[in-house]
Amino acid sequence: MNLKGRDFLTLKDFTPEEILYLIELSAQLKDKKKKGIVEQPLLGKNVALIFEKTSTRTRCSFEVAAHDLGMGVTYLDPQGSQIGKKESIADTARVLCTMYEGIEYRGFEQAIVEELAKHSTVPVWNGLTNEYHPTQMLADMLTIKEKLGRLKGVKFVYMGDARYNMGNSLMIVCAKLGLHFTACTAKEYFPAPELVAQCKSWAAESGGSVTLSEDVSEATKDAEVIYTDVWVSMGEPDEVWEERINALKPYQVNSAVMENASKDAIFMHCLPSFHDLKTKIGKEIHDKFGLDEMEVTDEVFESEQSVVFEEAENRMHTIKAVMAATLGAY
Length: 330
Prior knowledge:
It is built from 13 helices and 9 strands. The chain is α/β, with parallel strands linked by helices. The termini are close together.
């Protein structure tokens, strides 16, 4: 399959076959790395990483993956780029594509990464926007396939705020690959109706399904994957914490949820997670609202059913596959 020159902005743009190809390529590259096989098919090439929102996993994944492939990396943090400030997005793209073979963007509106891609002559990769998080989806699907042995037909439940990048992207990838996706949350936190309708159309073609539910017991019954994310996203004001906690506390992933799921169910989270008081924000939330844990209990997070760190590792392997495929290495 030839993906050379393609941008990677949202999985809406990719067919099920293309997504599965990237997952399989990720598995092959992971196997080679585990065996100590060193290949640098992109030696001499360079990539630029634009981070308007900081990240541990995304930055490390892109940097290690790029180095493994033989590439040089320039990291531009929120203070290290003039994008949208002194220089337009279009002009930034036209400058960077003369120096680099690929450009990653992690930040705010999807329109920004779309604008970069429009004016770039080299592939642009979405490391996260408010609306979509496609590289995380590949890591999640690779993890599910490794742990459950299949993707098609898997009963997948996402709990929490399903309106933004994680809820949107998980619904898209599940619908395209034939998983049975349920967003389990309060009605005001359901994904946008237009995207739900599009995903239901894809699910009808793939043999999957899309369901929206406010009933935790019904939604999680016999689920094979229970997934959650932080209740307040990066860049949102502190004032929304109280509203989110009140609305989403019934949708916390706890032992009762996992016991209601399949006995072989796995727990997933894209990280970071507020499952204890060992973070600055966790302590602040505890002091304000009296909570020791939020979207997931520490008991579940640290349980044998939790695969969050394998999932985090797979970010690197899948990002490597995206860069390798779109730059023509495989």
